[in-house]
Amino acid sequence: MKALIQSKKRWQIDRPDEELVNQLAKDLKLSTMLTKILVARGITTSEQANAYLHMDESNLHDPFLLHDMQKAVDRIQHAIDTQQQITIYGDYDAGATRF
User: Under a CB-based contact definition with an 8 Å cutoff, are residues 35 and 24 in contact?
Assistant: First the structure.
């Protein structure tokens, strides 16, 4: 059976350095799957991996660097003060804003 629609795009999959992946997996006692993800994100040392995997508040960006954050905080505080209902919209990867 012939495909009805031919894709004009080609997937390009980067393969991480297997030696680096295996060394990190061994050093950190992690699965190679997890270390492949780390290496794909540019994390190539044990120190970088530990910092990434064990983040604390010092690793987070100041949320007030986001555009109009003070306006959002003021509006939410007003809604709380006047007992208005608040609806929160989001998507499954909203947590990615920390990067």
Answer: yes
- Structure token digits, residue 14: 């980067």
Cα separation, 5 vs 44, whole angstroms: 40
Report residue 27 as tokens: 């050093």
Q: pTM for the complete prediction?
A: 0.53
pLDDT of residue 7: 77
Predicted pLDDT at 88? 83
DSSP 26-79: HHHT--HHHHHHHHHTT--SHHHHHHHHT--GGGSPPGGGSTTHHHHHHHHHHH
Is residue 25 within 8 A of residue 39, CB to CB? The reply is no
Distance CA 57, CA 88 (A): 24
54: tokens are 């064990």
C-beta separation of 86 from 76 below 8 A:
yes
